[in-house]
Amino acid sequence: MSDADIRPEIEFRSDVTVELVRASASDSDVLFAARVSTQGEQTLEEAQSGNEASARDRGLINYLMRDRHGSPFEHNSMTFYVQAPIFVFREFMRHRIASYNEESGRYRELRPVFYVPAPERNLLQVGKPGAYEFLPGTPEQHAIVDTATRDAAEFAFSAYQRMLAAGVAREVARIVLPLNIYSSMYVTMNARSLMNFLSLRTKVEGTHFPSFPQREIEMCAEKMEALWTELMPMTHAAFNANGRVSP
């Protein structure tokens, strides 16, 4: 059997997928949790009784954020579905503040979907650790990256398919696959954990502690932040106003 007979069509992507699949998260959750300190027991219905956010509510959330009273931001939950290259997931899982369930290459045949950097992706890393600047590459450098990435993915997936066709176990055959193959996972975290993640994985002007994330995980973080902003606008505004530091 030739390689052409066993090689499925390979897909190349330059983006990531982030979807909010389940959420129990609102600004009223923060207020509900915080006010037990001063008002005692309060029902969630009482915390949500006002239709419009009051200046008092905004002030309380800003105070909690500014003075880093973090626990009221933990009484909520968001579950995201993420599709991204495996090297991005390895960075995600450095954050031991979330629950992860990723698809398994032991139990299912992996799909031939691979990441290739888009033309606008910066290629040059200049500077010293902790103060990197990322700059565009030349057209020739982009051409090398694009061609080499595609060739390596096609070669590796062909080897993977040959082993599977020969009866080799999926958990063994997968060892030849490169880090730019896409995987998928569910990740669940609360707003405090998400703010910690965003403070490290996004680069935004005006932050108290500048970060220099790899662009591909920043793409995921930006999509997660946009979804979270819809759920908890007051909390998000206070996060930005106080230098994007997790409380």
Automatic annotation (TrEMBL):
Cofactor: FAD
InterPro entries in the record: Thymidylate_synthase_ThyX, Thymidylate_synthase_ThyX_sf
Binding annotation for FAD: S71, R94, H95, R96, E102, N190, A191, R192, N196
One GO term (biological process): methylation
One MF annotation (Gene Ontology) recorded for this entry: flavin adenine dinucleotide binding
EC number, as in UniProt: 2.1.1.148
Catalytic activities: dUMP + (6R)-5,10-methylene-5,6,7,8-tetrahydrofolate + NADPH + H(+) = dTMP + (6S)-5,6,7,8-tetrahydrofolate + NADP(+)
The keyword ATP-binding is annotated on this UniProt entry: no
Co-factor note (free text): Binds 4 FAD per tetramer. Each FAD binding site is formed by three monomers.
Record key words, sorted: FAD, Flavoprotein, Methyltransferase, NADP, Nucleotide biosynthesis, Transferase
Residues annotated as the enzyme's active site: R201
Domain of life of the source: Bacteria
Pathway per the UniProt entry: Pyrimidine metabolism; dTTP biosynthesis
Keyword ATP-binding: no
A Pfam family: Thy1
PROSITE patterns: THYX
Binding sites annotated in the UniProt record for dUMP: E91, F92, M93, R94, E102, E103, S104, G105, R106, R174, R201
Quaternary data: Homotetramer.
Family that this chain belongs to: Belongs to the thymidylate synthase ThyX family.
Role noted for this protein: Catalyzes the reductive methylation of 2'-deoxyuridine-5'-monophosphate (dUMP) to 2'-deoxythymidine-5'-monophosphate (dTMP) while utilizing 5,10-methylenetetrahydrofolate (mTHF) as the methyl donor, and NADPH and FADH(2) as the reductant.
Protein name: Flavin-dependent thymidylate synthase
Source organism of the structure: Microbacterium lushaniae
